[in-house]
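Example 4.3 (complexes with small molecules)
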Amino acid sequence: MSPVSPVFFCIGLCVLKASQAQSDPFPKPSLLAQPSSLVPLGQSVTLRCHGPPNVDLYRLENLESGNYKDENILSIATMKADNAGRYRCSYQNGSLWSPPSDQLELVATGVYTRPSLLAHPSSAVLPGRDVTLQCRTQYSFDGFVLYKEGDTGPYKRPEKWYRADFPIITVTAAHSGTYRCYSYSSASPYLWSAPSEPLVLVVTEPSATPSQVPTEVPSPATEPSATPSQVPIEVPSPTTGFAHQHYYAKGNLVRICLGAMVIILLVGILVEDWHSRKKCLTHRIRAMQRPLPPLPLV
Ligand SMILES: *[C@@H]1O[C@H](CO)[C@@H](O)[C@H](O)[C@H]1NC(C)=O
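Answer. The structure with 2-acetamido-2-deoxy-beta-D-glucopyranose bound is encoded below.
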């Protein structure tokens, strides 16, 4: 048995302990926009930071301008273009800051005229068929977003210059609904057009009641497997296999890097210890007690 392996085990434990000690004791707050993070110019919106109640200070930041406010609520009475952008919040208790919330992207809509949304070949589709929703503008935009009413996430496509296709492969009843699209320029990603007129996609089921076995349509697409809450817009992707390979390759790379880091750390710690054991220890303790630097001023 190699005498090195217990050392590695110990180093691994130490790295684990160190990362646990340095992980923040505060839960991450969440930041929400009400009624929505898509705000028509001139309308009002409220950003709320949710976190624990008994803390010293909440801070809400606009990451575009660097402006911040030490409150957990930001009310914007009249949405303007320069209110759009990324926001985040955090809180402070004692001398420690919480980790920041996920970023909230506040979008001003109605900055440009509306695009049009069309369905090809038709907005009435049989289950199992394909349909393409096409968002078109008369201007050169390079960002297009499709929303389905009731769904949380948008579907984005970066396309040039005046239209984007959103193909839906193998339509099921769950794809029925009301769709809208927006266009924007990637130079100002938080300033969007007005929404298109709504497009109602109707998936016409064959006239069989759900209790009967559909003898006429042996298509596997009629399986009622898609849940209405989860409606992926499937984009034909011949690169899916590559994406997986890439993912696994990345995983290996991460493992190799971690291994290399552990070795470097081992050498570093040995040298450091050998040099001045005591000095290093006090220094490390001081670093852990030090509060995070204050956020930048306006
Ligand atoms: C913040 O600090 C106060 C006083 O030390 C403590 O009572 C409270 O529980 C702390 N809050 C959180 C969320 O840690």
